[in-house]
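User: My collaborator sent over this chain with a note saying "see what the structure looks like." That's all I know about it. Can you take a look?
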Amino acid sequence: MDARGGNSGRDINLNSPNKGLLADAMTDVPVDNAARGAAPEGLTLAEEEELRAELAKVEEEIGTLRQVLAAKERHCGELKRKLGLTPLDGLKQNLSKSWHDVQVSNAYVKTSEKLGEWNDKVTQSDLYLSASSTLEDWNEKLTQSEAYKKTQETLSQAGQKTSAALSNVGSVISRKLGDMRNSATFKSFEDRVGTIKTSIRANGLSDM
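Assistant: Without extra context I'll predict from the sequence alone. Here is the result:
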């Protein structure tokens, strides 16, 4: 059986290089309203046609904008590369801009104002003032109590004793060093060192 279609004269053999021509030709055939079906509920056929035309126009504009955006992004990348900017620099800039946008946003400003109002209400509330007054009273009573004063005196005395002990240790070490220098053993050692130095000098002069 021949795979050619009736009277159309077109080659629809699946192995033919012209197999796509029929499909392409079919896309150019207009579809009438009857074949398309009834218009959506609440729309006339004329309104549907107008909306479809507007949709096609918007989709075409979107495609154009995408092409323009892609070209702009490529140009932006080239400029950054020439300026030596790395992706990390771009990330830092984006984060900084995002944080700035957050700070100037209405939500952030309103939240900051609300927190400020809550802080004022808390610090001016009777409960907060009473708690602060109570803590001040406790602190005053603590610093004036006998236990606190005795602790302060004990720490002060301990510090003074420690300083005195360190001073005594230094004096003892200095005295011991002085006694050692004045001892007969140390003087004998100094005499021997002096004799060795004299001998070295004499030998050095005789060799010249």
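A starting point for your reply to your collaborator: Residues 69 and 75 are 10 Å apart (CA to CA).
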